[in-house]
Each structure stands twice: as C-alpha cells, then as structure tokens.
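Protocol step 6 of 9: fold each sequence in the batch and record its structure tokens directly after the sequence line. For illustration, a two-sequence batch is reproduced in full.

Sequence one:
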Amino acid sequence: MTDETRPRGPWDPTPAEEAAAAAPGRRDYRIGPIGVRVEKAQTDASAPTLDKGQHPAWALISTLLLGGFIWYISGSWVVAIAALWGLLVHEYGHVLAMNRYGMGPAKIYIVPFLGGMARSQRLPSSEWDGVKVSLAGPAFGLLAAIPFFVGWAFLGGSAWLIGAFAIAMINLINLAPAPPLDGSKALGPVLARIHPMLEKAAMVAVGAVVVVWGVSNGNWPFAALLALALFGHLRRGVWRPEGRQLTARESAMSVGLFVVTALACAGVALAALMPMAGSLEGVMAHGANFLRFGR
C-alpha cells in the first residue's frame, strides 16, 4: 500500500505539521550517545553556518570523563580503552556515510558519561540513505576489534580478547531496535511502511525491555538515556523522518543489511570468546551471562 493510498495513521503528521516541515531552514542529522541517532529540524530561514566541531580541549576532557566512567562501572581499564577506541571508529563509520550521501561535512562529538555522536549539516534525502548511515556505524565499528585480535595473536593474554568482545557488544547493542539506538533507524522505516503504529509499538516495546535490562544490571546512565528517548518519541507527533520513503526493494535490502550487520557483530563476539571459553557451550554461557537481567 503506497503512502498516497493508505489512510492517515494516528502518528502521521497533520497538514499543519507537514507545512512546517516544508519550510526552509537548517536540518541537523545526528548519531547520538553511544553512536545513536538524534534528529532535529530548525526552521530558521537564514543560511546555516557550517558546524566547526567540538573544541579540542573540551573533546579531551569529555574523553577522559567518559573513559573514567566506563572504567568505574566495568572495573576494567582494558574495557575502558576498548570502548573509547571502538566508539571513535563507530562514529567515524557514520561520518563516512554521512559525507558519502551529501549530509556532510559531519563532525564527531564526545559526550561525557554517555558516549559520542556524529553530527551532519542536514537530514538524508531518503529513508534508504538514512538506513545506510545508521548501519554504517556498527558495521565499520567492528574494524576497531582488529588491533585487539592482533595483540592477542602476538602477545597472548585474555585482556586483548576482552577488549575485542567489548567492541563487538557495543556495536551489537546499538542494533537493538529501540530509540535512539541505530537499530531503530534501520528497521523503523521498514515497519512504518506497513503502518506507523506498528513502528511505534515495536520501538516502544523493545525500548522498554532494554531500559529494564539496563536498570537491572546497574547501568543507570544507559537506561536513563533510553528512557528519556522513549518519552520524547511518545510525545512527538511526527514519527517518520523527512525524505523519500523506502520502496519495497529497499525495505527488503534494509532488513538484509541489518541481519548481516548483526551476524557480523555476533561473529566477532564469538571469535573473541571462543579462545577463553574453549567451547561453543562456554561461549553461550558467557554471552548469556552478559545479556541476562540482574547480573
């Protein structure tokens, strides 16, 4: 059913909101905390000023604060270093995709205690471009695990494998289809093509589960971030981003790319755990322990 023929859904924009969205102005397209995406539209008719990026001094302070916080909650300096490195590579993947699809020049920002974001100058011209930008972070972010595997191969020691596992899990968790994580922007347009309410219900349901998971494991900042994002999306009347909607072929490709990216993340996590666990059963036990509630 095309967008022109289906009835207006409960979360579709009103005619007044559509007129406001069509007004000229600056469009910000962001990949928010821990590599997730936030969108903001401004209706200022003046020409936008290019984003100069984060001040180097504040970027350094933010990185130290974030690294220290990760070290505190994980109890491991290896995880802290791996998370910072993995975050940088993840965000750079978003930046490369943004620049490739005419949304740049994109900049990377480090957010104290939360993560990072890649910010562009405008929204994507189509939902298909938005899907590719969303998945570029987790897919490219897996490259950050290569130095850790090389270090383990030449120097040995489980610390290198723990770092690689942390990087894989950061990218895999970002694929959860819950706002504002990357997965919500990769699968959201596909669900909205069926009906906007289906997307809304799926995102909120998965988001609620992830929030409970974060709270039960003591990761309060992560849970609070997702809870605020869910609340904001519930209050927002316009659920779909601007730009040409997905075609049937692009919807199938979006699901395919999402599955391939998720399998790649799981594969890297498996490769990191196997030498430590010694068997597939041991790997499954480690993975279940990481993902279980209330550990």
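Sequence two, same batch, same settings:
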Amino acid sequence: MHKIAIVDKMHEDGINLLRNNSKFECEIIEDLSKENLISKLPNFDGITLRRGKIDSEILKKCKNLKVISRHGVGYDNVDIKYLKEKNISLLVTGTTAAVSPAEHIMFMILNISKSFNLYDDAVRNGKFENIMHMDHKSFELFNKKILIVGFGRIGKKLIKRCLGFEMNVHVYDPFVDKKTIENLGGKKINNLDEGLKEIDILSLSVPLTKLTHNMINLEKIKLMKKSAVIINTSRGGVINENDLNEALNKKLIYAAGLDVFEKEPPNDNNPLLKNKKVLLSPHSATFTKECASSMAIQTAQNIIDFFENNLNSLMVVKL
C-alpha cells in the first residue's frame, strides 16, 4: 500500500478518489509550517501539493518519496533541483486549470474597463443620477489590442474570449510558433518591447523562472501607453511590485489587476493594497467549483497513474 500525504486540503472529489482506492493510504496535512512538514512527510511515498513550500531541507528527510503531484501547473514552491538529483517525479494538472483563470482575466479586464466598482457604489450611495454628469473613464473592449504573454493552456483559452469581444490579440511567446498563434486568431510578436508600445492591455500567463522574474519593470512599463492596463494572474514575481506601484502613482499606465503577489499573502505595508488603481484578488483565479473539483481529481489521478505505470506524459514536468 502506498502512503500519500495530501498537503493542504483539496476538493473532496480528489481526496475520495485516493481514499476509495485500496492501494493507497492517505493523510491530510493542513499545517503547512516547515517544522510540521519536516515532522510529518518522511514516511510518505507520494505527496499531493496545493499550497505550502517543499524545499530541499524538507525533501532530504523524505527518503521514501517518489513523486509530488502539484494541484496546479506552477511549481515554484518545490525545489526542482533536488527532485532532479534524486529522480523524484513532479506532476502537474494539465489542462484542468485553464478555463477558470482565463475567465478570471476577463473578469478583471471587464471590471477595470467599467471603472472598477464605480457604478455599483453610485447606486448604493445615493448617486444614481449624479453618475451621468461625471467624467467617465470607462472604455470599450471592442477593437482594443491585448498582448498575451505566455501562450500555454491559459493563453489558448483566453484568446477565444478576447476574440469574442472583437479585440485584436497579439501574443508573445518565444516557444510557440507563428502558425499555431495565427490559427487561433492571434498575431505573433517577436519583440516584447515593440509589442508593449502599441497595446492597450497586457495579460501575463507565464511561469516564474529566472527569465521571467521581474520581466515587467519600470523600464518596460514606460514603453506602454498611459491608458494601458496590466493583468497578472501568473506569479507575483513576474512584475516588480514597487515599480508597478510607482508607475500607477505617476500615471504612466491607467490601472492593473493582480491575482498574485511576490509574497503571499502580501504584507500589510505593501503599497499596492492601498492603491485605488489596482483590482486585487487572493490568488483565486482557479476558485470555481468546477475547477476545484477537476484539479483535485487530476492531482489524485496523477498519483494513481504514477504508481500504476499508466501516467500521461503531458502531466510530467521535465526537470
């Protein structure tokens, strides 16, 4: 029987998939402190991981560990160098976490385009008629240019939704060929700086790596239109948060939507929390009932398939 640690509780559909399989014994670990993980994890053969950080200090104690199945597609909370050294497999949830994030991006774009919560507040605060005399900053999405940076699972779902609003979609992803992008209705951009100069909205859907860390900084933002909007639902470190806050305060761009932060949860003194030109959400782009269930099921199924030697290669991270 394989012992599996469910690190950070996930949807019951995934938990039950493992519990109802006689080949597996499961334990849910909700205390994500390093001390507790060091204490609890050494006896397990596999780990499902949602939140929490599994570094080399923890992994060195896990002599029986053969696989980590991520509840998602990002893996910056795992020491992949150590996994590679010890030949521990790392799995992700494939296409299950794509629709909800794409819809969340559209939610952020639409919310900002309609002046955040201005109209809702007006009705609630007795300004129903006053609002028509204000200087409206709402804008249409029709014919606006959006640049999708990162054209993986989420990017491919997002482009369909943008085209539904009759937007002009540009894509920057050095690893995706021009034909693939054009077949889905987009235009491939080969130079990020040139692309930033002409677009109205920037959406980031890239993993956090040495190449993408702080890829959007003050220098890049200065290339953009003063009316531009930045949306980040990928990883917080992709944008330099201090530079973004400065750019918003100096009106170098119009607004931003952030679902992710370099430190999560962000510190109370993070200036972006008080910046009224930022729409915020708590790393919740996948928080729908459908996505929660499908991600948990895929996370659990990956564990089962791994030990039954029936794993889909698309779920395996090449370390």
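Proceed to step 7 once all outputs are recorded. Observation for sequence two: The CA atoms of residues 34 and 142 lie 48 Å apart.
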